[in-house]
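Researcher: Good morning. I'm working through a list of sequences from a screen, and I'd like to move beyond sequence-only analysis. For each chain I'm collecting a predicted structure so we can compare shapes side by side. This is the next one on the list. No need for commentary yet; just the structure.
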Amino acid sequence: MRRSVSLLAGLLLAGCAYQPEVVPPGAGTSPPPSPPPPSTSEPPLAPVSDFTAQGCPVDEPAFCEQAANLANALVAGDSETVFDLSRPDRFDCEGLDIEIFPQCDDRNALSGYALGTHQGEIFYLRENAYRDSLEFFVEAVDEGYTDDLGGSEMQILGVSSCGSGAGRSYHVVYLVGLADPDNAAFAARFLGTYELVERDDEWVVGITYVGQYTDWQLVMDDPLVEIACGDTQAWQP
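Model: Good morning. Structure tokens for this chain:
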């Protein structure tokens, strides 16, 4: 693994002057603030470990085939397959909201792989940085981690449907417990989604959203219920 969580902010915020509200692990000597209380709702955990298109909770066969490939890769800790399912983008900054695309503050265009934060910003990473980030998000599972939401293993919560028609997208939602290989004292619960969009008649990962569960709690009353479009449906056995 070429990056640790101590460099996670650099991957998320590459190329801009944005400063995160939450100090990343190892970045200072002051103790972190007390986290918000844990969610009282139970996650809609899928009772499956081998994902198939037939068990997909939405009626979109081509999407379900790709989503099953993605879910199986996540459970297997296969970041290379997740990368192969992802696609880069390029946008002119003119007309884009800097609150959502902070890198446009000093750029004319954005290009690369999209990474979204709990605060709603979207950053674009070069290929190598995106690969490095996936190595952490997918592979750095802490075997000993446990909390009120379960163990450290990748938990695919289900699929959230967003929009309709040509603009529709779907989020594969997950929980996982990750560790920093360079900091034995750090392990945390992460919550995230992979947003799949249709391009050239193929469903691909367009944006990867990720953050520590406590960060999501700063902006949502109940992240497990509200994340993505707030309608996560569990995968069926």
